[in-house]
Amino acid sequence: MDARLNFFTDPTAGKVIKHFMAAGKALKDSQLPAATQELVSLRVSQINGCAVCIDIHTKEAAAAGETALRLNLVAGWREATVFTEAERAALELAEEGTRVADAAGGVSDAVWAHAAKYYDEEQLTALVVLVSLMNMANRLNVITRQPAGDYKAGQFH
Question: Which residues form the Carboxymuconolactone decarboxylase-like domain (predicted)?
Answer without folding.
Answer: 19-96
